[in-house]
Design a protein that fits this description.
With 519 residues, the protein is an alpha+beta fold. It has helices at 2-15, 24-30, 36-52, 59-79, 92-110, 213-216; strands spanning 144-147, 155-159, 163-167, 175-176, 186-191, 199-203, 226-229, 237-238, 253-258, 266-270, 273-277, 285-289, 293-298, 306-310, 314-317, 325-327, 337-342, 350-355, 363-369, 377-380, 406-409, 417-420, 424-427, 435-436, 438-439, 449-450, 455-460, 467-471, 474-478, 486-488, 497-502, 509-513. α3 (36-52) runs antiparallel to α4 (59-79). The longest helix is centred in the first third of the chain and has 21 residues, at 59-79.
C-alpha cells in the first residue's frame, strides 16, 4: 500500500491533482499498478463502468463523471510525455534534468561547447509587439527582476514559464541565459554583489493561484530548488535540495535574496517556509518552517535584521536570520497575501500591502513601520478606492491578490510609495493618500499612462533610482516614479502558447495564448 501511495503522489503531483481526491474504490483498484498504461486503463474502465450503470435521467451524476473523465483524460495526455523506459511517470524536472545531462555528455564527446539549438528548430517569435497601446500589449509574463551591482545597463528578468533573460543595454534587447536549468520557471533571482557572474535562481512559478487556470490545467512550472551559475548564465548546476523536499513534494518558490554583506548567505521564500543557507547553497535550513512565506527582505545597511511575510503575518529576525519572532499587527489577520518593501532613504521603514480573498473588499490595508518592524500603523484601507483594482474608464474589480500584489518605496524619498495589483497606485505622503497612476486599458484621451495589467514585481534600481515593473506583458521602466513608462520587450521570448492552428490555404499560423489573446 505504501508503494501505491508514493506512486499516486508522483503521478498526481505531475498532474497538478490532489492525490487524496481519488475515490477509495478507484484507489483500491490501482493498488499494485505502477505502469502509466495500466493506471490509465484502470481509471478509464472505472469511470466508464460507473457511467454505464446510470440511467439517462441521472443528469447530475452523469455530468459529474464526465467532468472527471475530462480531467483525467487531459492529465493522461500531459503525463504520457513524462513516462520513462519502464512505463512509469517521472517528475517533469527529473525528465528535463536527464535530457540536459545527456546533452552535456554528447557535447563533451564531440568537443562542442556551444549552446546551439537542436538541428531543425529555429525560434519563430514573437520577440516584440507593434500593435500599440491596447489591452493585451506585451510579449509575455515576467515575474521577477534583478540588477547588476555596478552596471545599471545590465538587468535580469525571470519568467514563470520562459526562463531567465539578461539585457546589457538597459532593456533595448534581451537574450536567454538559463538553457541548462531543469525548470523554465523563475520565482526568484539573486546576483552576487561582488562577483556578478555568479547568479542564483529559485525555480518555478510562484505567483499563479493554486485555484487558477494555470495550476488546474497543469500549465504551472513547478519549483525544483535553487540553481547556480558562476559564468554569467552560460552553464548552471542545481544546488542541494531543501531539507524535507523530495520529488513527490509539490511546493512553490516565492522569492530569493542574497545578503549584500555576506554573499554566502541566501534566503529562499517558499510555500514550505523560509530556507537559509550560509554556504552558498551547499546546505539549507528551514528557519521559518511549516508556513507559506510570500517575501523576505533584509534591512538596508544592517543584515542582522531580516523580515519575512506570510499569508497573514509578519516575522522579524534580529540575529541575521537564525531565528524569527512573530510581530503582532492589528487588523492584519484577514490577509491571505502580503507584499513588502524597504528603502535606503529610511532603513528603519517597512511598508506592507495586504489583501484577502474576498470580493469586492479585498484590500486589508497598507501598513507602515518606522522602527524596523517593531510596530506598524495601518495608513490606508479604503475599499472604495481599492489599490488592487482599476477605476479609470471602465471599472475592473477582479480579486487577484494572490496573483498580483506589489509595493515599493523610493530609495531617495521615503514618502513616495507605489503599490498595486491590476494597476499601479502612488502615494506621496508616506502611504496615507493614494492616486491611480496606470490604467488597465489604454484610454482614448491619452491622459492616463498605460502598462499591461497584473503587476508581479516592482523595484527601484539601486544605482540610477529608476522604477522597474514586471507584469503579464513584460518589463517596463519609469524615471519619474510612475508618471511615464517605457516598454522594454525586444527579445523577451516568453509568450505562452497553448495551441496552434495553420490555415490550409495560407502560410499563416494562429496561436492561442495565455494572457495575450492570440497571434
Amino acid at each position: 500500500m505504501k508503494n501505491l501511495i508514493i506512486l499516486l503522489l508522483v503521478f498526481c503531483v505531475q498532474m497538478g491533482a490532489d492525490g487524496q481526491s481519488i475515490d477509495p474504490e478507484l484507489r483500491l483498484k490501482l493498488q499494485g499498478k505502477t505502469k502509466f498504461q495500466d493506471i490509465k486503463s484502470t481509471v478509464w474502465s472505472h469511470l466508464t463502468g460507473k457511467l454505464a450503470l446510470l440511467n439517462e435521467t441521472d443528469t447530475l451524476e452523469r455530468k459529474a463523471i464526465m467532468r472527471q473523465m475530462k480531467k483525467w483524460n487531459r492529465e493522461f495526455w500531459i503525463n504520457e510525455y513524462y513516462t520513462n523506459a519502464n512505463g512509469e511517470v517521472e517528475p517533469q524536472s527529473k525528465v528535463i534534468s536527464n535530457a540536459l545531462n545527456h546533452r552535456k555528455k554528447e557535447e563533451q564527446k564531440t568537443g562542442s561547447g556551444s549552446r546551439t539549438q537542436v538541428e531543425g528548430w529555429v525560434q519563430n517569435g514573437p520577440i516584440s509587439t507593434n500593435f500599440g497601446l491596447v489591452y493585451g500589449e506585451g510579449v509575455g509574463r515576467i515575474d521577477r527582476l534583478a540588477f547588476h551591482p555596478t552596471q545599471p545597463n545590465v538587468l535580469f528578468a525571470g519568467s514563470p514559464h520562459g526562463g531567465l533573460f539578461k539585457t546589457t543595454n538597459s532593456g533595448e534587447e534581451w537574450f536567454p541565459i538559463s538553457e541548462y536549468v531543469a525548470s523554465l520557471g523563475v520565482s526568484g533571482i539573486a546576483v552576487h554583489p561582488v562577483n556578478p557572474d555568479t547568479i542564483y535562481v529559485l525555480s518555478g512559478d510562484g505567483d499563479s493561484s493554486d485555484d487558477g487556470l494555470v495550476n488546474s490545467y497543469n500549465y504551472r512550472s513547478q519549483c525544483n530548488g535553487v540553481y547556480k551559475s558562476t559564468n554569467g548564465g552560460m552553464t548552471w548546476r542545481k544546488l542541494s535540495e531543501f531539507p524535507g523536499v523530495a520529488d513527490t513534494v509539490l511546493y512553490r518558490g516565492r522569492n530569493l535574496i542574497i545578503d549584500p554583506t555576506n554573499p554566502l548567505i541566501l534566503y529562499a521564500a517558499t510555500s514550505l517556509g523560509l530556507f537559509r543557507t550560509n554556504n552558498g547553497g551547499l546546505s539549507w535550513i528551514n528557519v521559518v518552517p511549516g508556513v507559506n512565506i510570500w517575501d523576505v527582505k533584509i534591512k538596508p545597511g544592517n543584515s542582522n535584521y531580516v523580515y519575512c511575510v506570510g499569508n497573514n503575518f509578519f516575522r522579524r529576525s534580529v540575529d541575521g536570520g537564525l531565528s524569527f519572532t512573530p510581530i503582532f499587527i492589528e487588523h492584519l489577520d484577514p490577509a491571505t497575501r502580503i507584499s513588502m518593501a524597504v528603502t535606503p532613504a529610511n532603513p528603519s521603514k517597512i511598508a506592507l500591502l495586504a489583501g484577502k480573498n474576498t470580493n469586492p473588499n479585498s484590500l486589508v490595508g497598507v501598513f507602515i513601520s518606522t522602527d524596523s518592524g517593531g510596530n506598524f500603523d495601518r495608513t490606508y484601507y479604503d475599499n472604495s478606492d481599492n489599490l488592487f483594482f482599476n477605476y479609470i474608464d471602465l471599472n475592473v474589480t477582479n480579486n487577484q491578490i494572490d496573483y498580483d500584489n506589489v509595493i515599493a518605496i523610493s530609495p531617495v524619498n521615503e514618502n513616495i510609495i507605489l503599490a498595486g495589483g491590476l494597476c499601479l497606485w502612488r502615494s506621496e505622503d508616506g502611504g496615507y493618500d493614494w492616486s491611480q497612476e496606470t490604467a488597465y486599458w489604454a484610454t482614448s484621451d491619452g491622459l492616463h499612462e498605460y502598462i499591461h495589467p497584473d503587476q508581479h514585481s516592482l523595484m527601484y534600481h539601486p544605482i540610477n533610482n529608476k522604477l522597474y515593473v514586471a507584469n503579464d506583458g513584460g518589463v517596463y521602466v519609469s524615471d519619474n516614479n510612475g508618471d511615464d513608462f517605457e516598454f522594454m520587450q525586444t527579445g523577451l521570448s516568453v509568450t505562452q502558447f497553448y495551441h496552434f492552428e495553420e490555415e490550409n490555404d495560407e502560410d499563416d499560423s494562429w496561436g492561442a495564448l495565455r494572457i495575450l489573446e492570440y497571434w
